[in-house]
């Protein structure tokens, strides 16, 4: 268990390792690094480049709600490693991961601004979203941040919400979309497909027996999986990328007592992926998981799923067959 002193030590070491340039800082949990977050990061990077400053993102681990309201802790959209990578991809040159604990959560807003942002980090400018809160009980708001910080020489930039078809984008909205199986909406909100990953597990070769071999993954609880269903997907491993169709859930027709798995059939793929780490990106939902009257009826439905997935992926520019050596598909350019 980390303490406040542990958190402040991380911040101090980070500040001491700085570039010597003025520090522009984006602050937030940034779970998912969705399109709303990306607007903040792009503004941070552009302003820092113009001012000769260093663009830095501050995030927190674990998720603050897991500490202050554990019974309401949300499932994560990204692992911490992937969150850091995405923050850098979208404009941060460095990422400060602050260990979040009850003592850190108990800092009054004034203490957080004066002692953390100004004195320890020596931030020149801070960027936050419209719903940003900080300090004990979430009392701090962007307006209070400006009220406390500006007399101390800390500039504050608050960015407004990003909307999609009238929906304000947030990590919560994306979780709701995934819980409903609406991975196409999650893709629009994130600006990329939602992905889960894990090692390919040995299976009972039931898919192969049906004529549709699968690479099987189990839910390790690190990030949120969509609700059960059949999905058009894209898989990545070791720099390779391949289109596919996936069954997420059980197998009520052939293995009703079996565990919940993500079974990915890669279109026209011939190879062995056992033991490799596979990342599976969800593009669109095809149907519910359901029980069929016979194995033959299941086989016929899977063939229809494959055709539908191939059509969806082709129309959306997601169709790809690159077993080695990453090649960018139309949607990656």
Please tell me about this protein's structure.
- With 333 residues, the protein is an alpha/beta fold.
- Helices cover 34% and strands 25% of the residues.
- It has two domains: 4-160, HUPs (Rossmann fold); 193-332, Elongation Factor Tu (Ef-tu), domain 3 (Beta Barrel), CATH 2.40.30.30.
- It has helices spanning 4-16, 35-51, 64-68, 80-89, 102-105, 109-120, 142-149, 171-179, 183-190, 206-210, 295-316, and strands at residues 23-27, 54-61, 94-99, 123-129, 155-159, 163-164, 167-168, 194-199, 215-217, 229-237, 240-249, 261-266, 277-287, 321-322.
- Helix 6 packs across helix 7 (142-149) and helix 8 (171-179) packs antiparallel against helix 9 (183-190).
CATH domain class name of the largest domain: Alpha Beta
Give a quick account of the main beta sheet: strands, pairing sense, barrel closure. Answer: 7 strands, antiparallel
Please state the average pLDDT score: 92
What is the number of strand segments?
Answer: 14
Give the structural class: alpha/beta
Q: Structurally, how many domains make up the residues?
A: 2
Q: What is Rg?
A: 23 Å
Shape: elongated
Measured as a percent range, the helix fraction is 25-40%
The helix tally amounts to 11
- Succession of helices and strands: HEHEHHEHHEHEEEHHEHEEEEEHE
Oligomer: single chain
Question: Please, what is the CATH homologous superfamily of the largest domain?
Answer: HUPs
- Spans with pLDDT under 50 lasting ≥5 residues? 325-330
Quickly give the CATH architecture of the largest domain. Answer: 3-Layer(aba) Sandwich
How large is the share of residues in beta strands? 15-25%
CATH fold type of the largest domain: Rossmann fold
